[in-house]
Amino acid sequence: MALHTRVDEDGPRPGFIAVAAAASIATLSAAYGGEASTSRQHPAVACTSEGGSPWIVKARGTLTRTKSKNEIIYDLDLGGHSYTWRFITKPEGSTTIVGPGFLTESQSDVGPRGQRLYVTGEIHEYAGPTILSLAIGSRCPTSDPKRWSNPTVQRDAHKSGARPSP
């Protein structure tokens, strides 16, 4: 939608600009069910660690975060692959997460898999000894991958009655 201003010999007319701006806002509000929506793009990097080894950059891309009154939508374009996930908050306050599926390639023999989605747009995935971190920015995490807790290992230890190591 283009925003046009009327220009007379004396310059633009402020009243016309205000009416045109109000019409633009009304159109956007109608398109988003009466709520304003904002989008921001961020650089993103996907890094992996195998068995606690140092982080390695696997792909770089763009993460777009679109926020409205009751929803945050993430669109990730990463190395030619696209993923979308969302956080939807209902009026009573509960939040539903619709995930993107796993970003790591599916391998049947990797063992248990797990994924943590953060409202910041970051993702941590665990597939056997492999950890994937999707981070906002252009650098891999600075923390030691050996210090990251793997929820699939903790879950399986709890199910078996074993106590996790300190």
What this model shows, in words?
By secondary structure, this protein is of the alpha+beta class. It folds into 2 domains: 1-35; 38-140 and 148-160, Transcriptional Co-activator pc4, Chain A. Helices cover 17% and strands 40% of the residues. The chain has 2 helices and 10 strands. It has an 8-stranded antiparallel beta sheet, with no helix packed on it. Strands 1-2 form a two-stranded antiparallel sheet. The longest helix has 18 residues, at 14-31. The protein is globular, with a radius of gyration of 22 Å.
Q: Strand-and-helix sequence, N→C?
A: EEHEEEEEEEEH
How many structural units, i.e. domains? 2
Low-confidence regions: 1-32, 153-160, 162-166
Round the Cα radius of gyration to an integer and report it: 22 Å
Strands ordered across the widest β-sheet: 7-6-5-4-3-10-9-8
- Return the CATH class of the largest domain: Mainly Beta
Q: What is the straight-line distance between the termini?
A: 59 Å
Instruction: Decide which structural class fits the backbone.
Output: alpha+beta
What's the gist of this structure?
By secondary structure, the chain is an alpha+beta fold. The protein contains 2 helices and 10 strands. It has helices at 14-31, 151-160; strands at residues 7-8, 11-12, 38-50, 56-67, 71-78, 81-89, 95-98, 113-117, 123-127, 130-136.
Task: Give the helix/strand layout.
Layout: E1 7-8, E2 11-12, H1 14-31, E3 38-50, E4 56-67, E5 71-78, E6 81-89, E7 95-98, E8 113-117, E9 123-127, E10 130-136, H2 151-160
Antiparallel strand pairs: 1-2, 3-4, 3-10, 4-5, 5-6, 6-7, 8-9, 9-10
